[in-house]
Amino acid sequence: MKSTVIKLVIVVAAGTFGLMSCDILGGGSSSSSTTPIGGDPTPIGEVGNTFTVPSIPGTSDRIIEVIESDGGNSVISFSAKVTNPTILQVANHRQSFTANGDQVTGQLKFRITDKGVQSFTSDGKPFTMVRYDAKVGDKYVLKRSGGDLVRRVVHKSSDNDFYWGFMMIKTIQVEETGFKTPGVSRIKYYFNHRFGMVGMDVFFEDGSEMLMWVFSQNDN
């Protein structure tokens, strides 16, 4: 039972608070991983665009919205009412978020263009999540003293093979390892060149996994 609760907390935190690498300090990474992706800004990164992550237990009144945009760099704000005290504790340990009673708010920065998506480290470095021209085997590495954070392209669809929102779509799947969360072995992100990030799959050390869909109001 305790293991199930821990998993739920991790998944809820991921879906509600964007539990990625944005609170991580960058290091001596290869320039290809931390050089800003080119391309033109897309509607997904426009001010006012909103995102939905359905069915997150222990939270309500979730709002995920782009509040700033400048040349492809977008700030996405998150807010939610959180009733689970363990989830609140997770939020309190994230640099990007603030908990005030049961209300959690925060902001994360991304680079979103027609060429791909990057998150940002806490010291302001872009770190590639996906390039839409990626090939299987492409790797994005963030060097850290405690161990590298690695994002590797593990699948690129040639057919519509991912079920999403009552349709089948093509995806580029990027697997992240080196993420220092107890109980988590890896995270897989699902991207589509039109819809942006469409899902996140959290894999646990006991061999189980939990998949969340992500929906953007705007398309690329």
Task: Describe, in short, the structure shown.
The chain has 220 residues and is mainly β. It has one domain (2-216).
Describe this structure in words.
The chain is built from 3 helices and 16 strands. It is mainly β and 220 residues long. The chain has one domain (2-216). Strands 1, 2, 3, 4, 5, 6, 7 and 16 form an 8-stranded antiparallel sheet that branches. A 6-stranded antiparallel sheet has the order 8-9-12-13-14-15. α1 packs across α3 (85-92). The radius of gyration is 16 Å and the shape is globular.
SSE layout and pairing:
Elements: H1 2-17, H2 31-34, E1 50-52, E2 59-70, E3 73-82, H3 85-92, E4 97-100, E5 103-113, E6 116-120, E7 126-131, E8 139-142, E9 149-156, E10 162-164, E11 167-169, E12 172-177, E13 184-192, E14 196-204, E15 209-213, E16 215-216
Notable characteristics:
8-stranded antiparallel beta sheet; 3 helices; globular; mainly beta; 220 residues; 16 strands; 6-stranded antiparallel beta sheet
